[in-house]
Design a protein that fits this description.
The longest helix has 19 residues, at 120-138. By secondary structure, the chain is an alpha/beta fold. Helices cover 48% and strands 10% of the residues.
């Protein structure tokens, strides 16, 4: 059983995570970003199960006996993962407030890969902005092209209102964002092992 002082809230900050890791070697960190993002930068000892993979394995992940801290880039995907795992019955579950951005800025230990992939939110902003600019420019020749920019704006508004992002889901499937890191059977075995 865990000996760490688990906060009463589901959201913990970087200093609380450092404290939990020092107190309990069995605490698990589950990074729900894409494999590409994980390869670029992650917390040492964390396990990568991208949000798109997590849903189909929520029951297995919820059965992990150890406390789990969910991490993504800024907190949004970790919140979605939290909802899925709580619904599947996981109780000792927390979200790292501010995600990897906050962890890295606070001086937390990180593993840096030899690739430099953009975080998903940055990729979404780039693609949405590029589509909007291109359609506005194209509307000088083809007046109807302005509606593409309107569609992008509507999609971003819907994304914010529902806290979902179809564009991120599509971008996450690109080879650029893929990695061979998620061996779900191996991850589940490792998550369930007792610390030495």
């Amino acid at each position: 059983m865990s000996t760490a002082t688990i906060p009463g809230t589901d959201v913990i900050d970087s200093s609380q995570l450092r404290q939990l890791r020092a107190e309990d070697p069995d605490i698990r960190i589950l990074d729900v970003r894409t494999g590409g993002e994980f390869e670029t930068l992650h917390i040492p000892g964390s396990y990568n199960v991208p949000l798109g993979t997590l849903g189909e394995h929520a029951r297995d992940l919820a059965s992990v006996e150890h406390p789990v801290v969910l991490v993504c880039q800024t907190g949004g995907r970790a919140s979605k993962a939290h909802e899925s795992l709580v619904a599947a019955g996981k109780e000792t579950l927390h979200i790292l407030e501010g995600g990897m951005e906050a962890w890295d800025e606070s001086g937390g230990d990180v593993v840096r890969g030899n690739t430099d992939r953009w975080a998903m939110d940055r990729q979404v902003r780039f693609v949405a902005g590029s589509l909007a600019l291109a359609s506005v420019a194209a509307s000088t020749v083809i007046p109807g092209a302005k509606w593409i920019a309107a569609g992008v704006a509507g999609g971003l508004t819907y994304s914010a209102a529902t806290d979902t992002c179809a564009m991120a889901a599509m971008l996450g499937k690109l080879p650029y964002n893929q990695s061979d890191n998620c061996d779900i059977v191996g991850v589940l075995d490792a998550l369930n092992q007792k610390a030495a």
